[in-house]
Amino acid sequence: MKIHATIPYRGQRFSPAESLQRSREYLKYMSRRRSLRSFSDKPVPREVIENIVLTAGAAPSGANKQPWVFCLVSDPEIKHKIREAAEKEEYENYHQRMSEEWLRDLEPFGTDWHKEFLETAPWLIVVFKKAYDLIEDKRHKNYYVNESVGLACGFLLTAIHQAGLVALTHTPSPMNFLQKILDRPENERPFLLIPVGYPPPDAEVPDISRKTLDEIAVFY
Ligand code: IYR
Fold first, then answer.
1. Which of 90, 98, 111 maximizes ligand 1 atoms within 8 Å of its Cβ, making it the mutation to test the pocket?
2. What is the pTM of this model?
3. Helix 16-31 × helix 145-162 angle, to 10°
4. How far, in Å, from the CA of 113 to the mean position of ligand 1?
């Protein structure tokens, strides 16, 4: 068994006072991140998207298997196909598959089956999880795949915010149409569909609040 060689840790080091200051600033900065359901069609340079994806790829993963693939769609024809397929599923969801309670919970957000943003946003990032690796037709195990890919998506969202872009974590359901349209192999399963772009000039977001520390934290 070969053990990894080690290298010095390159993270920055701070005093407790600096940590306090930095944590406050980051909280303020991240608190302004919001999901948007409309996008400007202003182009986003490809290298910005590349950097965002590489940031996502820096997330931790089970046994460092990095069980993710990011499909980056700017082709209008493919976006159109994705929109059509997503709206078909969402129409069924809103008209019969979602429970009364679910529809009531969503009512304040004013969502419906129309997904215009899937064509307006200059980029669609379609995140796939690799249930297992396929190397030369041989299956290799991946571990904690949902946790790992969820973490990568978190990194992705912070990188999107940092670049002054906005996104929506969209989950059309079921979403196996993405595997077909993007011609992905059978070990890859769609995880999230994330339109990315600049916010439109007149962007509005729901006036919602976040839970307090008391509601989300328990100290022991
Ligand atoms: N996937 C549907 C419904 C939907 C579900 C939840 I939970 C949301 O937070 C938002 C929407 C849609 O995208 O409209």
1. 111
2. 0.97
3. 80
4. 9
Ligand 1 center to 171 CA (angstroms): 7
Instruction: Walk me through the domains of the chain, giving residue ranges and CATH numbers.
Output: 38-199 (3.40.109.10)
pLDDT tens-digit profile, the chain (220 residues): 899 999 999 999 999 999 999 999 999 999 999 999 999 999 999 999 999 999 999 999 999 999 999 999 999 999 999 999 999 999 999 999 999 999 999 999 999 999 999 999 999 999 999 999 999 999 999 999 999 999 999 999 999 999 999 999 999 999 999 999 999 999 999 999 999 999 999 999 999 999 999 999 999 9
The DSSP symbol for 160 reads: H
Question: Which of the 8 DSSP states describes residue 125?
Answer: E
